[in-house]
């Protein structure tokens, strides 16, 4: 009979508590949570087993546990727990710890895990964009220059070709590379004993990825499954609409960014597709951008309202939750305000707010691998893994 050696880590339970799972010790292993979870499979359901691993300090078990990534954080288990042990928060804290330790450089993960690190996270892009501004102001001889025709054009300071495009491209591809390495590590952690044997035909991972993206992103079908769980007797705020708004706004804004980049760079070769920035409000790509911004604000408002309404005795909101909501709010508000100030011809606030907008957008992209948004990528990888190899 195979033996498994338990390797308790006395610091682990404390770290889980610090990361948001303070209620862990209340659990008396009744398993109500596993029955209440609408997502848990019949064999080896979660989150009861994770509660005992966390209280015993079994860090290794969490590293190789795909189940923590299958959880949708709906909070049904926490609502039904007779002890108020908040298993949903414990799973959420465990996920945060896994990707905090998984992603290099670890110092960013440390800053990202509490409000104390915010200052450093902010200062890096604040200095970067200030240097860009100062250099350009030194060349221009003005901090707030106007274009030759008198308009406010942010490119007069934050020149797209030599500053915004290369800085954001490097940041984005750097974040993608860091996440790729983390996903590889996560994938290896799921198979600690080596590659799993799969009997029978197996689809290529790309087909599984398409299935996962269809269910999780395009249709948000899994959110319905999650909310179809047992009736808790308590009002549960719908997460699907806010989440769907947010995801679709990201899709639209990513498309707009790609279209503008294509129009700008491609337009140098094919003048017919050239896009001039700033775009007029009636230009189709600009209309799409503003629809994306509106969806973003609506999604943020719904998700923020839901978090504010949560009963902290049952389902809490950790720093990771508020950091992501906060940074997206700041990106959205500074983006809209900089457009408003530009249209109102208020040059000083327009440039100041646009500078802050660049800082917050950089924070959103650069810290993506350590943030709750990176969780989307790790979760997708785990879901593809489960479809390919099953759960161990
Ligand atoms: S978390 Fe709550 S419901 Fe789950 S096993 Fe522990 S006490 Fe029971
Ligand atoms: S939060 Fe929802 S999906 Fe996650 S374990 Fe609890 S009931 Fe299941």
From TrEMBL:
Signal peptide: none annotated. GO terms for cellular component: plasma membrane. Pfam families: Fer4_8. InterPro entries: 4Fe4S_Fe-S-bd, 4Fe4S_Fe_S_CS, HdrC_iron-sulfur_subunit, Helical_ferredxn, NarG-like_sf. Residues 62-91 form the 4Fe-4S ferredoxin-type domain. The chain crosses the membrane at residues 120-139, 159-180, 244-267, 287-308, 320-344, 350-370. It comes from the Bacteria. GO terms for molecular function: 4 iron, 4 sulfur cluster binding; metal ion binding; oxidoreductase activity. Keywords: 4Fe-4S, Iron, Iron-sulfur, Membrane, Metal-binding, Oxidoreductase, Transmembrane, Transmembrane helix. NCBIfam families: qmoC. This is Quinone-modifying oxidoreductase transmembrane subunit C. The lineage of its organism: Bacteria, Pseudomonadati, Thermodesulfobacteriota, Desulfovibrionia, Desulfovibrionales. The gene is qmoC.
């Amino acid at each position: 009979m195979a033996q498994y050696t338990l390797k308790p880590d006395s610091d682990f339970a404390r770290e889980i508590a610090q990361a948001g799972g303070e209620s862990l010790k209340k659990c008396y292993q009744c398993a109500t949570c596993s029955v209440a979870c609408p997502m848990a499979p019949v064999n080896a359901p979660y989150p009861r087993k994770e509660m005992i691993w966390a209280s015993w300090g079994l860090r290794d078990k969490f590293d190789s546990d795909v189940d923590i990534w299958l959880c949708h954080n709906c909070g049904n288990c926490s609502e039904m727990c007779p002890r108020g042990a908040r298993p949903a928060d414990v799973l959420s804290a465990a996920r945060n710890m896994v990707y905090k330790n998984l992603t290099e450089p670890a110092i960013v993960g440390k800053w990202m895990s509490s409000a104390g690190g915010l200052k450093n996270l902010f200062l890096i892009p604040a200095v970067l964009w200030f240097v860009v501004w100062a250099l350009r102001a030194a060349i221009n001889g003005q901090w707030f220059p106007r274009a030759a025709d008198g308009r406010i054009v942010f490119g007069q300071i934050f020149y797209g070709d030599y500053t915004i495009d290369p800085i954001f491209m490097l940041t984005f591809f750097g974040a993608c590379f860091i996440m790729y390495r983390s996903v590889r590590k996560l994938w290896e952690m799921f198979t600690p004993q080596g590659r799993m044997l799969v009997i029978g035909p197996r689809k290529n991972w790309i087909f599984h990825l398409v299935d996962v993206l269809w269910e999780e992103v395009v249709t948000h079908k899994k959110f319905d499954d999650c909310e179809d769980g047992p009736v808790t007797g308590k009002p549960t705020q719908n997460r699907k609409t806010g989440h769907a708004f947010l995801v679709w706004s990201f899709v639209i804004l990513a498309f707009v960014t790609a279209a503008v980049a294509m129009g700008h760079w491609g337009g140098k070769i094919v003048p017919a597709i050239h896009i001039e920035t700033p775009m007029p409000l009636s230009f189709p790509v600009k209309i799409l951008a503003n629809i994306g911004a509106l969806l973003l604000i609506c999604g943020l408002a719904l998700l923020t309202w839901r978090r504010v309404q949560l009963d902290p005795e049952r389902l809490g909101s950790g720093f990771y939750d508020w950091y992501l909501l906060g940074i997206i709010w700041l990106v959205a508000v500074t983006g809209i305000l900089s457009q408003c100030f530009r249209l109102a011809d208020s040059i000083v606030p327009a440039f100041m707010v646009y500078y802050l907008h660049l800082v917050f957008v950089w924070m959103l992209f650069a810290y993506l691998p350590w943030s709750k948004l990176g969780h989307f990528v790790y979760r997708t990888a785990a879901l593809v893994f489960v479809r390919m190899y099953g759960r161990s």
